[in-house]
Structures are given as C-alpha cells and as structure tokens.
Specification:
The chain is of the alpha/beta class and 349 residues long. It is 31% helix and 24% strand. Strands 1, 2, 3, 4, 5, 6, 7, 8, 9, 10, 11 and 12 form a twelve-stranded mixed β-sheet that branches.
Length: 349
C-alpha cells in the first residue's frame, strides 16, 4: 500500500477557528471547556462543555456541515496550486446510529450540506462514513487505495461531531458517562470539526508520514458487562508498530482519544504493559497527548484532530520527537492505531 503523508490540516474547535490557533492554544494548555447552557437533569447544575465560538449556533445536522466546511476549506487552501479543488475526494466522518437521539438522516444531511457550502461538485470517491471514531480507519484505507490507483492525488478526511444537545447530554448523564459534581469518572461534552489533507509521501524533508496502521476489537466495551481486557487496543497498536518496523518504546509520544473516563486510561495502561519493552535507560519516556482535555468529547473529529496536532507540532518544532503512535477507541469495541514519522529536523520555533 502507498505510504501517505499528512500534507495539511484544518480545525474548528473550542479553542480556535483554524488549525494554527487551535494547536497553539492546546500547546499552551488553554482549555475551551467552560460552563454551558446544558443542564444536568439529576442535580440541575449546568454542565461544562467545549463549543466553537461561532457567530451562530443551532442544533441541526447542517450545523455540523457548517463546521466541516470551514475545516475542509482550510485544507483546500493548502493544496498545491496545480491541483483543482474539484478533483479532491472528501471523506466525511459522522456518528453512527447508536448515538442517543441521533437524526436518522444525519450522514446524508451533513454530506449534502457540506457539498452545498463548498460551491463546487464533490470529486468521485467522496462519501460519508457513519462509523463513529473508527471511521478514520476505514476512510484512511479508502484514501490510500484511491491515491495508489492514481484516482486522486490528494484526499481530505473531515470528521464533524457534537454532543451539545440537551437530549444527548441528558442521555449520557443518565449513563454515568459525563463529568458532573457527583461523577468524576466522565467526559466533558464537546463539538468540533477537524480535517486533514492526505497525499502520497515523497522523500522530501519536512513531511509527516503514516508508516503503520492496524485495527483491533475489544470485547469488553465501555457499557458492556464484560471485563475490559485491552486486547483490542494491544492488537491494533502491535499491528501498526510491526508494519512500521519499530517497537513501542522507540516512539516519542502517544496521541490518544482519552476523555477522562477511567476505562480509557485503564485500556491504555493494559496495552502499554503488554507492548513496552524499554532497553535503553537513557531514553526519555514518551509524552501522552489527549486533546479532549481542552476541547471536550468531540467524537468523530478526534482522529483528524490528532493527525493535525502532530503535523503542526512537527512543523513548528515542538513535537517530543520524530516518531509518534496514535490510536482511537470506539464505543462499539473497534480500535484503530497508526504510527507517524516526521522526515525533517525538529527545530523549536
């Protein structure tokens, strides 16, 4: 399979309306999570949430299309000058039908709304993935196939998601999933759209290559009665690391979708115990990055967000190193992992 590079990124988040401002805020430890109009139906307290500071907001699928369009256009602006924007397939990630109070036509509505806002026909191969966070893996496989077959030179993957509706918030509070005054084992609600521009990797310096990818499945999902084993994430990370030809302890940092729930922290620990074999005592432990701390739970947008964070960190020179591992864990049990490698020098700017 053709090795791809992350050639550009776009973000609309609670801490910035583009990728540079969002990444700068997260690097500085600035959180966009604050008191919101959403209410805890049990205690009556207001919930904390991360919402992009858009001029207007409405709770409908075309709001997600509005956010996705902004992130997508940011990626389109980073295309080489000789590439027609109408030739770039756009792969859209949205939540699946298991999400509480999800609109039945969410996928088609977001896809149609995005197409209308871009003001040009979408390229052949453009489609929507209703696979939650795991959609990033399926979209990546399709993007790599299109680029390998030369059906496209560039592909955009954009994830857009929101938990900022009272019905959705109430459903997750009732499941003991949201961080509240009486529940420390939960996440903050969030909303975002994040996009990445992918193309074939070259041998030029300054590129962020995706050199490994793999998937796995966990039987003990977060809301099931089966015990968490960590085998699904271990399988995904091991497969991605094997494809890259490196060990876990060779990587410098770990990009994760940890939310603050104990389940995900435990899962990462189990995978780390099984995979990490440090033989060089002088090598520094890798840093774990978890942007949901600053953005709130952003669902399908987290995969492109993690790629975008790595790209900007490498380009700006503040990444902990040239090698990163990354994973996303879906509530269905699906796990996806990637290994990233930067080809340039990291000079802190």
């Amino acid at each position: 399979m053709t090795t791809l590079q992350v050639a550009g990124a776009g973000m609309v988040t609670a801490v910035g309306f583009n990728v540079l401002s969002s990444c700068a805020a997260m690097r500085a430890g600035i959180s966009g999570v604050m008191e919101s109009p959403l209410c805890d139906p049990v205690s009556g307290d207001l919930l904390r949430a991360g919402r992009p500071h858009t001029p207007q907001w409405w709770a409908r699928p075309d709001m997600l299309a509005e956010l996705a369009a902004a992130a997508t256009c940011e990626c389109l602006a980073q295309l080489p000058s000789d590439i027609d924007v109408g030739e770039v397939p756009i792969l859209v990630l949205v939540s699946d039908t298991t999400r509480p109070h999800r609109e039945a036509d969410l996928g088609p509505a977001v896809f149609t709304g995005l197409r209308a806002r871009l003001h040009h026909p979408l390229a052949a191969g453009s489609k929507v993935y209703e696979d939650n966070r795991f959609g990033i893996f399926n979209a990546y496989i399709d993007a790599a196939a299109m680029i390998a077959a030369r059906r496209a030179s560039h592909v955009i993957i954009v994830g857009t998601d929101s938990y900022l509706r009272q019905q959705v918030a109430s459903a997750y509070v009732e499941r003991r999933r949201v961080l509240t005054q009486d529940n420390s084992n939960g996440f903050n609600l969030g909303e975002a759209a994040c996009a990445v521009l992918l193309s074939a990797a070259t041998r030029r310096a300054g590129e962020l290559h995706i050199i490994g990818h793999a998937s796995g499945r966990e039987s003990g999902t977060i809301e099931s009665e089966e015990p968490l084993t960590g085998h699904g994430l271990t399988q995904a990370l091991r497969g991605a690391l094997n494809m890259a030809g490196i060990r876990m302890d060779h990587t410098d940092y770990w990009l994760t979708d940890q939310t603050g729930e104990h389940y995900k922290a435990k899962e990462c620990t189990l995978a780390q115990i099984r995979l990490e074999r440090r033989t060089d005592p002088t090598r520094k432990p890798y840093t774990i990055w978890h942007p949901i701390e600053y953005l709130g739970e952003i669902g399908c947008a987290i995969g492109p967000c993690l790629w975008g964070m790595a790209l900007i960190a490498c380009r700006k020179g503040y990444a902990p190193g040239k090698l990163a591992q990354m994973h996303v864990s879906d509530e269905s049990g699906a796990r996806a992992a990637f290994v990233l490698s930067f080809t340039g020098e990291l000079s802190n700017q």
